[in-house]
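Posted in: Structural Biology > Protein-Ligand Complexes

Title: Requesting predicted complex, adenosine-5'-triphosphate in pocket

I'd be grateful if someone could produce the 3D structure tokens for the following input. Sequence and ligand are given below.
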Amino acid sequence: MKEIILIKNGELALKGQNRSNFEDILIKNIRRRLKSLGKLNIRKAQSTIYLEPAEDDYDFEEALQRVSLIFGIAGFSRACVCEKSMEDILSKAEIYLKSTMENIKTFKVEAKRADKNFPLTSPEICREMGGKILSYFPHLKVDVHNPDIVVYVEIRDFAAYIRAEQLHGAGGLPVGTAGTASILISGGIDSPVAAWTMAKRGLRLNAIHFASPPYTSARAEMKVKTLLSKVARYSGTINLAIVPFTEIQDQIAEHCPEDYFTLIMRRMMMRISEKIARDSGSLALITGESLGQVASQTLPALVSTDSVVNIPVLRPLIGMDKEEIISISRNIDTFETSILPYEDCCTVFTPKHPKTRPTLELCENAEKGLDIDNLIEKAISETVYTYID
Ligand code: ATP
Ligand code: MG
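-- Reply #1 --
Done. Output follows.
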């Protein structure tokens, strides 16, 4: 029995004239994400996207799993392909619906007849299908108001379909419809969640990671790549810039007052990130900061980090509790990786008494001993680029 995946686009329906453009990007994303599974025909008709495997040994379950992670898909379902005759539809229904129907008590049938040449009207299709289902599965009852399951019969131009279960999609908007932004990614819990949250709103992601070997190890860098590959299951390919940060940290440790270490480090990261972001076509930075979570995330501290850049800084977690962030990170399967104990460049130089209420003037004074322009230029020239998918 031949199965296909039907995709209905939630929020896309709101986009009026842009709709077709959004759908084209979504289809491109789907094609890219399912490419390695084999040949697939993709068709778009009447606000539905049809994914039809063109090979017998196609891994359909894996395709369903991947589709469930693609942003811009509110709901989708698997469906059985039938000839456009009631005879074929009814006989396939018995086999196709068996496992679903065994576990429920009530159902109703809805029919959609897009092909008006089909000899039966929609109510007639419902009646015939409903009667047959009751005879196939005698434990069932019809409940038109609150059924456990709705069985849909769709008569389209090119075929007829039976489907029963609506599956939840990842929601959001297709990646790429909102432009590109750069996530500052650490090995922690928050930044992968921030990356996922913004990709969900349609942003394509670039990533920037600051590494401080030998203070931070190769394993710490691997951890960041693993986290990004988990985010990439949703966002698609992520370009990653790995910036050497050791010299800057050493210089800060040598020339700046200790209670400003973290703040100055963050300011340096932002300055470098702005340049890398602009060079790679990003229109904004994204960070995993959450108001008040640590000393460098108080409002005065955020003001002081923002003040060194001239690019929007998106902080999708700003109003979230740690518990909420952890809950998302478990859902997107980054949590277990994030809590691996490898050192991060920020933890290596954590001051005993970090400044929580810095003023811009104090920050500027504190970093006077640094040759900021040279440090930035050198770090950027030694940045290594790779990609994660
Ligand atoms: P996270 O869990 O994302 O590490 P955090 O709560 O530990 O966040 P900080 O360490 O203060 O907070 O970092 C704040 C933000 O700065 C991070 O969310 C991330 O966006 C960015 N950041 C921190 N360290 C790095 C790094 N080594 N490379 C790139 N970005 C970083
Ligand atoms: Mg961190």
